[in-house]
Amino acid sequence: MRRSKGTVLVALAIAGTIGALAYPVIVSYPNRNATAAAALTGDTVTTQWGPLTPSDRDLIVRVRLAGLWEGPAGQQALERSSDKVMQEAANHLIVGHADLDKRVRIIAAKLGVELPNQPNAQQQGWLDEMTAASPAEYNQVWANLLRSAHGKIFPDIATVRNSTRNTLVRQLASDANQTVLDHITILEKTGAVDFQKIAEGSVSGTASPTGPPPPVAGQSPASPPAAEPSTNPDVSSSVSPGGPGVVNTNRPDPEELNDDQGQTPQVQ
Questions:
Q1: Backbone angles phi, psi at 77, to 5 degrees
Q2: How far is it, in rounded angstroms, from Cα 22 to Cα 18?
Q3: Alpha-carbon distance 201 to 195, whole Å?
Q4: Which of 131, 136, 155, 186 is the most exposed place for a label (fewest CB within 10 A)?
Q5: Which residues contact 257 (CB under 8 A, 6 or more apart)?
Q6: What is the rounded CA–CA span in Å between residue 36 and residue 52?
Q7: Which residues, including other chains, have CB under 8 Å from residue 73's CB and lie 6 or more apart?
Q8: 3-class DSSP state for residue 136?
Q9: Angle at 203 between CA 104 and CA 174, to 5 degrees
Q10: 8 Å CB contact between 182 and 188
């Protein structure tokens, strides 16, 4: 009988220890109820702004991570490179990610998504590679690492922007899309980007199965039909404001967040 009671006590002690260890993980999220559980299980959360999916949360975290290493990378280039175009690109990174980071922190707080505060191991490796680059190779190493990283996240932003049902994530994706395109453009302006290397690291495209065949070297393609003037020229659309290489940081901020106590979290 003593052995049975002892076994029960040991089992209870183990259960209590597991619960104590699990508790801080579950309660550490800003709005911890449904979002915390979903983060652990990979489920979709219902929020007042629409469903929050795993891919939505992943984009939020990745936007935050981008600023954690690209901001320091921009600051480093200002200090190490005397090239004016490089310094212009570095300034775009600093300004663009400072603006985007403010937005992602507001949105993450509203949706209860925990954000990292340090670059991940891969990003820290990129920063280390920039730091180790010699003065002669610095511009090319810097520009190519950043251009490659921006090119990889660019289609992922578009995918989330297309599929998300959460209005805050959709807004963030739109803002991130504009910032990333600006950075891609300004990085390419440095003249240090190796497009061949980037192309080799990308998935190769194929001709459309319903379109014309791929071009043949030495043969001129048939001329397209002449453009016909529109019969209804009265249109209300216009080109997007701003040109390539100009990031718009005058976008309206995400609406202010009020928590259960009516307080607005501070964005530092």
A1: -65, -35
A2: 6
A3: 10
A4: 136
A5: 106, 109, 110, 264, 265
A6: 12
A7: 90, 93, 126, 127, 130, 142, 145, 146
A8: coil
A9: 25
A10: no
CA angle 176, 177, 181 (to 5 degrees): 115
Are the CB atoms for 180 and 234 separated by under 8 Å?
no
Residue 143, amino acid = A
Longest distance between any two alpha carbons in the chain, whole Å: 96
The two structure tokens encoding residue 206: 């194929």
**Cα–Cα dist 113/122, whole Å:** 22
The helix/strand/coil state of 52 is strand
For residue range 69-104, what is the model confidence (pLDDT) as tens digits?
999 999 999 999 999 999 999 999 999 999 999 999
Element (DSSP H or E) covering residue 33: none
- Per-residue tokens: 180: 């990333």
What is the mean pLDDT for each group of 10 consecutive residues in the chain (268 residues)? 50 47 38 51 85 95 96 96 95 94 94 94 96 97 96 95 96 94 95 92 58 72 68 57 62 60 39
